[in-house]
## 1
Amino acid sequence: MVPTLRILIVDANQVRAAIIEEGLREAGYQHLIRIAATTGLVAAIEAHDPDVVVIDLEDPSRDALADMFLVSRHIRRPITMFVDQSDSASIEAAVEAGVSAYIVDGLKKERMQPILQTCISRFNAFRRLREELDEARSQLEDRKTIDRAKAIVMRLKGLSEEEAYALMRRTAMNEKRKLVDIARSLITAAEMLK
């Protein structure tokens, strides 16, 4: 069974747009919206709120790829881009811009469903990686904050590293707060008392 997805098709070429639309309809996708221009794409995506964006640019210009970069930064959606010709710089720029599937000379209606599924899967995989990276960065920042606060407690109370950590941890448990919140409070207080 094909999931109910809202798909935005962006294509100035009516013939090519019809091939995309026909391929998607034959694959069972029914919620299709077609627009002709890539200008104002962010606003169009916000207005139509699609689950997936399919763009056919034939020969992508630097400006079009710059627009894709803006789209992917502001509105995180799986994006499939069809082009007729490409070079390695354009491919790199498209991937950098957040395009999940960059298809060169492959606009055939029979290929629409597997390409769309690949695009969505790849987008989801990258989203999970991005979330894991953000979480790891956040944990690292929290660790640095705790270490900084621990150093303050060690200096002010003359405790060892383990004792300072245990004191901060005990305080967090007693106050029903996160250890990092206690650390932030300690750092703020120390900054005020300088």
## 2
Amino acid sequence: MDAAADELLRLAFDRAPALEANQAIARIRDQEGDELSGSTSYELVLPAENVRSYLLDYTLPRLVDYLESSGAKLPHCGGVFLSVFAGDTLYFLHAKDVVELLSRWSGLSMAELKTRYGPK
């Protein structure tokens, strides 16, 4: 795995075998739902290479648009966690942590992310 993938996946608050994805996502939804009043999984498959470029060019615009459109506004991104498939493991990350990391990588502030990638 590349350095960007390592840095991203260090943010994981839980993990499970990818083969158990449906059960694991349901379990995390239940756990996180108590704190976040109804939790949503945003699913993502990490590529084997060029993870940083993939996350910045492909994932970040779509994730910001999804969060802003669904009411899980930046910077808190309440109620959303990412289910990230990497190899045979499924990692769970809070959307807030992922957006903060990608904001840092991109050099864009939260306000700039909203303006550039939020709903038009």
## 3
Amino acid sequence: MTVSERAHELAIAAAQAAADKKAQDIVIIDVGDQLAITDAFVLAAASNERQVLAIVDAIEEALLNLPDKAKPIRREGERGGRWVLLDYVDIVVHVQHTEEREFYALDRLWKDCPTIPFVDRDLARAEAAAGSGE
């Protein structure tokens, strides 16, 4: 089972919103074959609690602004700002402080699951401009 079209749309939008707020180590993992409760995990890291919360806010705003709006059914961990989980049913977003990201290593835990390619659009534009000699 691969991710649904809706889950893919949400995951890419969430990842881009995280990238826009300078999140690090953004990964989308297709967990649909392993979990019945969601299709994908979006993982992102930030170097401090304030940035974690800014990334979370940006993701929520971006998904609300999609043509088919999405709101999380659950939001956990906001108070500490070290690991915030946003559950959109089709996807679950984990925004973690860098230390939590390294310690809990969700990437390693789900290493047998395929990843969904994501390239930050700003990075892609910069590389395209560099390649064209601009």
## 4
Amino acid sequence: MHFTRPRELLVAGVIGLGLVYFLFEAAYEAMPSLPTLAGATLLVLAVGELVLAFVVRNRIRSGRVVTGIGIARAVALAKASSLLGALMLGAWLAGVAYLAPRSDELTAASDDLPAAIVGAGCAAALIAAALWLEHCCRAPESRDHDRDRRVTG
């Protein structure tokens, strides 16, 4: 497994943006209104992953026991969360792109716009927390390995 690449996040975001914008175009009139805190679930996930990232980082730095399977699970969680965050960021940005120009004309659009903005912010927070967790799971470079590289290189 490799660490998350920016292009993977970009592809997921574009897919979310395209699909949801099409849905807004096709069926916005039939949709119920968006709750303002609809995207807050993503923020809860982001906070959980941020806490996990600091726990993992502190355990690795202090040399306490960290199992390989535990780190692999944390990396898998981080990768899945960053992709989910990118997909949802694209989806919420599609909502912003659809609703913002119509918010002056439609009351429903002006009521739904704050939910789309909050959702986009929460999705961005999830991406950031997931990438931080992934970064914290990297194996630290050995000091002996660095010294050997400087002497021979």
